[in-house]
Automatic annotation (TrEMBL):
One Pfam family of this chain: GGDEF
Species of provenance: Pseudoduganella umbonata
CDD domains tied to this protein: EAL, GGDEF, PAS
GO biological process: one example: phosphorelay signal transduction system
Residues recorded with modification 4-aspartylphosphate: 67
Sequence ranges assigned to domain PAS in this UniProt record: 151-222
The name this protein goes by in its record: Diguanylate cyclase (GGDEF)-like protein/PAS domain S-box-containing protein
GO molecular function, one term: catalytic activity
Keywords for this protein: Phosphoprotein
Lineage: Bacteria, Pseudomonadati, Pseudomonadota, Betaproteobacteria, Burkholderiales
Length: 736
């Protein structure tokens, strides 16, 4: 194949005509190529019919110069292939045959021209140029036709299929044209509207505004645009019921009065002829805007005012109270135990609970009161025009009574309560932010005192709130300054009297308040996002302490550690555990992770995956405080659990070793049936120990044996450990 230099280049060369030269005589093909190469053509040559067909399949050609007599496939057959396959190219046949049949055959097959060899240089060049010129003109005509067709389709779409009403009015405001969209939207046929005044379809209250836009005479940017009107509907014809709102985009038509009789006899004077307009139905948009506006100020789940609307109404209530010299109350309500229900039964049931709780709270209010959802399980209320504080107290008590009744969530009966903080204007604050902040502080005071109640704000609570902030800052410093320490409470096998393990418990050596137990600061840490760094510290501290354990001969003991749900939920917990054990050379068999039941139930499959990883590593798993949460035996047997710990709240109920305590017996039976190890927590009396031992629980933890002790004391115990002496009463081995 010979291709001239510009073939394959971009730019202007790409738009040049492409010619295929086909001749089996090398000398003639070369001569033909040389004759055309200096022209603005892109040339490709073929020395046989089969080669020509390959090129035709591979690329598009504008013109084929074809010799009829080819050694493999004749020129007529090639033209048949071109026609059969629909190749868009013209053909000039070149042949040395003198017979008329060859020329007729070529022309019948659509050849542009037939040149008999030998042909003159001028004849060939002129024929080629004429053929290409014909193609250019045909292409131009086709493009023009396509543009006209597209323009016509666009016109038909805009007018006949427009989503808007397109209309024209005469100079008196009567309809002279209206498209079919008017019938689809308004129910009026074209015949019913043509000749009628525009006021026929305009809502009576909008006629004054309509007068200006339907008589619009301006043609420039001052012409009326986007004017909203309400149009009437003919419901008898099946149009959408009710009035619809339209926005009109108008322009005025001015015509030259050529050939028309005008009063002053001037045929070129521009006179007002009428109005052209497009009316777009914006009814759905207006409804959507109203819905968006409503949703911007309301909580979607409970349909209550949201935080933004509440602040707006509270601001108005404060202005009114200031003007009338009256009091108002702001309440901050937090639902107690909602998180437990949400985690246990799932977010769908949690949403149902919020909806039911919101309905009960709303039923307790007066017409002028406002109940809003702040977010999560928090609600706020403004009670304007109080006679005295007793009014707010009465409403708060009504709230508590309403919430005490059980909630039925599709067969799941749950109980919740509420912590309510109350701030009164103007004594507890004169601004929106002050009132909300003080009501919030009062609510947290109720939570700190045991929840399920209400409290009015007073100044001393602000000091306590500041103390909480100081506590958070101090706890962060404690991590940096090494003020945290692990204590250990041994677990005893009462049959042999030996220590078989210990539970790790965090302590804080506070520089001012002394030694603080975990219960005094961990709940606060969970609320303030400190559990993850605290858990990271604990993991490292336990591993370091285990090295000291093992050196003192405690390598056969198992350490149990409480795992925060937040820590388990973090995706890198397993890697942190594995990395710590490897770094310190600790055997995974020495570690037992304690989790609560609610971790398992709120996200079962995720918990199973995490715990299975721990078990594969060699770490065992215990369920702490068993029986105090929402236990599910269907889930329990699926989890890789090794130990159940009987919660101390059940152990405390044991007062008589000969008594009957069915919950304890049930837990022992479950552990035995599932083949799980059993540990009783909080054992403090001989009667408790004997009852548990008699019924099959032989591993115990509690003050009867050991209090939580520091690492140094625990190491001393390990070095001096011996079986407990056999006596009728189990002695106290150590009280630290």
């Amino acid at each position: 194949m010979n291709v001239n230099d510009d073939l394959g280049q971009g730019g202007a060369a790409a738009s040049l005509p492409r010619l295929l030269l086909v001749d089996d005589e090398p000398r003639l093909l070369s001569s033909l190529y040389e004759l055309l190469r200096d022209r603005d053509y892109r040339l490709v040559t073929a020395a046989s019919g089969s080669e020509a067909l390959v090129h035709l399949d591979a690329m598009r050609f504008d013109l084929v110069l074809l010799d009829l007599r080819l050694p493999d496939i004749g020129g007529h057959e090639i033209m048949d292939v071109i026609n059969g396959r629909g190749y868009d190219c013209d053909v000039i046949v070149m042949s040395g045959e003198v017979g008329i049949d060859a020329a007729i055959g070529a022309l019948k097959r659509g050849a542009y021209d037939y040149l008999r060899k030998p042909y003159s240089r001028e004849e060939l060049l002129k024929t080629v140029e004429n053929a290409l010129q014909k193609r250019r003109l045909a292409g131009d005509n086709q493009r023009i036709a396509q543009r006209l067709e597209t323009s016509e389709k666009m016109y038909r779409y805009l007018v006949d299929s427009s989503p808007d009403i397109i209309y024209t009015l005469d100079h008196e405001g009567r309809f002279t044209f209206v498209n079919d969209r008017a019938y689809q939207l308004l129910g009026f046929t074209r015949e019913e509207l043509i000749g009628r005044h525009y006021s026929f379809v305009v809502h009576d209250e909008d006629l004054d505004r309509a007068r200006y836009v339907f008589n619009e005479r301006r043609v420039d940017e001052r012409a009326s645009r986007n004017v909203e009107l309400r149009l009437k509907c003919n419901t008898a014809h099946g149009a959408a019921n009710g009035e619809r709102t339209f926005t009109n985009t108008l322009m005025t038509i001015s015509l030259n009065a050529i050939g028309m009789h005008v009063p002053d006899g001037s045929a070129k004077k521009r006179e007002f002829f009428g109005t052209y307009g497009v009316a777009r139905d914006i009814t759905d948009r207006k409804r959507a805007e109203e819905m968006i506006s409503y949703q911007a100020y309301h909580d979607i789940l409970t349909d209550l005012p949201n935080r933004m609307l509440f602040k707006d109404r509270l601001g108005l209530a404060v202005i009114q109270a200031k003007r009338k010299l009256t009091e108002l109350a702001v309440m901050f309500i937090d639902l107690d135990r909602f998180k437990l229900v949400n985690d246990t039964l799932g977010h769908v049931k949690g949403d149902e609970l919020l909806q039911q709780a919101a309905a009960r709270l709303k039923a307790c209010l007066r017409r002028g009161d406002t109940l809003a959802r702040q977010g999560g399980d928090e609600f706020t209320i403004v009670l304007p025009e109080l006679r005295d504080r007793n009014d707010a107290k009465a409403v708060a008590e009504k709230f508590l009574d309403a919430l005490q009744k059980p909630f039925d969530l599709d067969g799941h009966v749950v109980h919740i309560s509420a912590s309510i903080g109350i701030a009164v204007y103007p004594g507890d604050g004169e601004t929106i932010d002050e009132l909300l902040r003080h009501a919030d502080i009062a609510m947290y005071q109720v939570k700190a005192l045991g929840k399920n109640g209400h409290s009015f704000y007073h100044a001393s609570m602000l000091d306590m709130s500041h103390q909480k902030i100081a506590l958070e800052q101090a706890l962060r410093r404690a991590l940096e300054n090494g003020e945290l320490e692990m204590y250990y409470q041994p677990q005893v096998d009462v049959i042999t009297g030996r220590i078989v393990g210990a539970e790790g418990l965090m302590r804080w050596n506070h520089p001012e308040r002394g030694l603080l137990s975990a219960g005094e600061f961990l709940p606060f840490a969970e609320e303030n996002g400190l559990m993850l760094p605290l858990s990271d510290w604990m993991l490292g501290a336990l591993c370091r302490d285990l090295l000291v354990w093992n050196a003192a001969g405690g390598d056969t003991l198992r350490l149990s550690l409480n795992l925060s749900p937040q820590y388990l939920d973090r995706g890198d917990f397993f890697e942190k555990m594995r990395g710590a054990l490897s770094r310190y050379g600790i055997s995974p068999a020495q570690i037992e992770v304690e989790i609560t039941e609610n971790i398992c139930i709120r996200n079962p499959q995720y918990a199973i995956d995490q715990l299975n990883k721990l078990c594969q590593l060699g770490v065992s798993v215990a369920i702490d405080d068993f029986g105090t949460g929402y236990s599910s035996l269907a889930y329990l047997h699926r989890f890789p659990i090794h130990t159940i710990k009987i919660d101390q709240s059940f152990v405390k109920e044991i007062h008589d070793e000969g008594g009957h305590y069915p919950v304890i017996l049930a837990i022992i039976s479950i552990a035995r049936g599932l083949g799980l190890h059993l540990v009783a927590e909080g054992v403090e009396t001989d009667a408790q120990a004997r009852y548990l031992q008699a019924n099959g629980c032989t591993t115990m933890q509690g003050y009867l044996y050991y209090r939580p002790v520091s690492l140094a004391t625990f190491v001393d115990v390990l070095k001096a450990r011996d079986p407990l002496p056999e006596q009728d009463t189990l002695p106290l081995a150590l009280r630290a």
